[in-house]
Amino acid sequence: MANHSVHDFKADFFHFMSPPILVLSGNLQNEFYWNIPPHRHEDYSEIIYISEGECEFIINNRRYLGRQGDTVIFNKGIYHQEMSSKDQPLNTYYCAVGNLHIEGMEPGFLIPGHLDPIIPKNALSPQVHYLMNEIFRECKEQEIGYRSIVHNFLNSLVLILLRMIQEKYKLHFLTSTYTTANMIRDYLDENFIKDVSLADLSKKFFLSQHYISHIFKDEIGDSPINYMITRRMDEAKKLLLTSDQTIADIAGQVGYDNPNHFSMTFRRITNLTPGEYRKKIKGNIITF
C-alpha cells in the first residue's frame, strides 16, 4: 500500500538581514606550496572547503589544522594566514561572500567570533562540497541565468553551514526561541573586551536601558555589565593557565587598560589575585 505524506510549508523563523552576494569563486588544485601571508578582507567573508590534503591556518594569532572534508570560515575583517602541507597536495574550493548579515550576528560574520572557525567534516560536508563545486562550475561556464543559480546555491551553502554550526555549538540565535536577551548576550560574547555600556546597548538595539536591564536579568540571570565582567574573568582565567603572559598583558587582552583595576576586579570575583590564581591552579594540575 502506497504512503502519501504531505507537509505544510510553514513560516521560517530564520531570515537574512541582507542577502549574501557572491564576490568570487575559485578552485585550488594540487598545490604543495600554498602560502598566503597574514591578511584580512574588509569587504567580504570567505569560505574554504578542503576537498583533499591539509592546510595550516593562523587565525587571530591561533593555529588551526584543516583536513580533507573540513570547512573553514573567515569572517569579514579577521586576520588570517594559510599554509599548505609540503607532504601532500592541497585541493580546495573557496568563495568570497559580500553583503552577508545574519540576524543575531555582526554584519559580515557567518560564525560568532569566539568560536573555532573550522567546521570538522560531518554528514553535511558532502553537501558543502557539492554546492561549492556547483558555484565554481556555474561561474566558470556562465551559461544563461547562471547568476541567479549561483546565488540560490550560495543561499543554500550559507544555510547548510549554519546547520553545521548549530549542530556543533547549539547556538541560541539559530533556534525559534531566540529572544532579544539572547541577542544581547551573544553581542556581549562577541564584544566583552570592549567598553560596552548600557547606553551602547540601548543605542544598538533601540531599547531603553531600563528595559534591557530588566529582560536580561529576567532571562539570563544577571545584569549585562556583570555578565560582561564574568566573561572577561573567564577569559583571563584561561589565559593565566594556558600562557606565560604577564598580568598586564592579560589585562589588556580582556579589556582592561589599567592592570590594577583588572587585578582588583579579579580578586573581587575569585577571592584571589591573578598571580595567586595562576600559582594555585597550576599547582593542582598534573601532567602526563
Structure description:
The protein has 288 residues and is an alpha+beta fold. It folds into two domains: 157 residues, Sandwich (Jelly Rolls), CATH 2.60.120; 104 residues, Homeodomain-like (Arc Repressor Mutant, subunit A, Orthogonal Bundle). It is 42% helix and 20% strand. The strands form three sheets. It has a five-stranded antiparallel β-sheet with strand order 2-9-4-7-11, covered by helices on one side. The chain has a four-stranded antiparallel β-sheet with strand order 3-8-5-6, with no helix packed on it. Strands 1-10 form a two-stranded antiparallel ribbon. 26% of the residues are buried. Keywords: DNA-binding, Transcription, Transcription regulation. One of its GO terms (molecular function) is sequence-specific DNA binding. Pfam families: Cupin_2, HTH_18. This is AraC-like DNA-binding protein.
